[in-house]
Amino acid sequence: MTPLRLQDGGGAPPLQSTPQGSLPRGYAVRLGPHTKVCDGGRSLLGTSTGRLVYLKPRAAALLDDDLVTVTDGTSAALARLLLDRDLVDPWWPDRADDSEVSDVVVVVPVRDRPAQLDRLLGALPPQVRVVVVDDGSTDEESTARIACRHGATVVRHEVSRGPAAARNTGFRAADAAYVAFLDSDVVPQHGWLAALRRHFDDPLLGLVAPRVLGLAPDPAGRRAARREARGWLHRYEAARSSLDLGDDPASVRPHGQVAYLPSAALMVRREAWGSGFDEDLRVGEDVDLVWRTHEAGWRIRYEPAAVVRHEHRTDVSAWLSRKAFYGTSADLLAARHGDAVAPMVLNPWTAVFAGALLAQRRWSIPVAAAAYAVTTLRISRRLQRSDSPVRTAASLTAVGAVASLWQTASALNRHYWPVSVAAAVVSRRARRALLVAALAEALLDHHRTRSDLDPLRYLVARRLDDLAYGSGVWLGAWRGRSLRALRPAVKGFDHLR
């Protein structure tokens, strides 16, 4: 096979369509794992998001065994409302079957990774069409030979133009309604393709991505592989990789429970593509694409039932460098998307609540308690349709309180660690706050992720992770001559519908 050679962008990118259409008949959604039915079925509360939705009697009657199935316009509108409020997730009664998918083209950008490319192509379903974009490999013949052996089309850049440009080139070469991007160092697991493809039954869905986990232990049981799997860094990455977005399905939006999707594995609807990846970005281009797609009105989903495996970095210096590299994207993204990249999102009462506790004065607990009480009372006055307005308001306020403490502890150790350390040098209260934040955040995160790494080494790894990423954020801020990526965002508190 002779590779197709492209020296430039290959023409103007397709225009982005406006999303339109309602959910089809038979589409079903199920209450999410963090959604609680309240008031005898008349309201739904998101215990992790603080969103509360009241249901009219006709809408409540459509909720059958935690499911809403689209049969008419009313059920379609209800399913859409609950999806957009993060209270439900799409649901299918049967398992996904990759062999039934024929309208997806897989694009693989690669540069000098023949062994990984061979492994990836061998793991793809045989009927799937593949476009391999050789982004200036030094060993052009090896890449072409491996791709041809697996029946893939090869497109080549004579000079490396970066992963964003390679993916854009692959998209233009892919003649399909849906395009899946896979990095060459991932290995998709059975069912991943169909599990992602069926999300596009929702006509407003523009992007969906699978869960990215570390490679499974070597099936041959080689000693080196077993030692690596037991290494502290490998075990930390297995629980806390930047690519792994967790166990729960979610809608994706800035400041949401899931705020971005990694381009290591991603599927896109052609109409939602717009101008594609920003080729001026060498880092953060995937986050930028996700946020632009969201701004255009498309819905975006994270689907952990679909899994691909990834080669996590296990060399400490390379791992730290990569984390810092990710951090440098913050300023670039802030320039394009404003406070979507803000390290903290506060509303007036959570700012008072967290600030009072950080102050560690005699008045701190009374002020924090007063802020909690006043907010609970204010919200309860808006919940007169609830059977227990004060109890429900207290639950909503608790969600905000926990979120504010969590993000404050995380920001002190991650984005603001240079300021935190400087303050700790001269202030006993600052030292105490930083120590409590460093210990509590890491230990709670260890419990949340259920890592098999012991708490002490997890704590050290977590703090190194934050140190590297935060250093990258400050480096990016220095390069951009701006602190825009470090400014908190101040929002209102209005989740009642």
What are the main properties of this structure?
497 residues, alpha/beta, Spore Coat Polysaccharide Biosynthesis Protein SpsA, Chain A, 3 domains, ten-stranded mixed beta sheet, 43% helix, globular, disordered N terminus
Task: Provide a quick synopsis of the model.
The chain is an alpha/beta fold and 497 residues long.
Write a structural description:
The protein has 497 residues and is α/β, with parallel strands linked by helices. It has three domains: 28-91, no CATH class; 98-313, Spore Coat Polysaccharide Biosynthesis Protein SpsA, Chain A; 345-490, no CATH class. It contains 17 helices and 18 strands. The protein has helices spanning 57-61, 73-84, 114-123, 140-149, 163-173, 192-197, 223-230, 232-240, 285-295, 316-327, 329-337, 348-359, 364-380, 389-413, 417-426, 428-449, 455-480, and strands at 4-5, 28-31, 35-38, 43-46, 52-54, 67-69, 88-91, 104-110, 129-135, 153-157, 178-182, 186-188, 205-214, 250-251, 265-269, 299-310, 345-346, 489-490. The strands form four sheets. Strands 1, 8, 9, 10, 11, 12, 13, 14, 15 and 16 form a ten-stranded mixed β-sheet that branches. A three-stranded antiparallel β-sheet has the order 6-2-7, covered by helices on one side. A three-stranded antiparallel β-sheet has the order 3-4-5, with no helix packed on it. Strand 8, helix 3 and strand 9 (129-135) form a beta-alpha-beta unit.
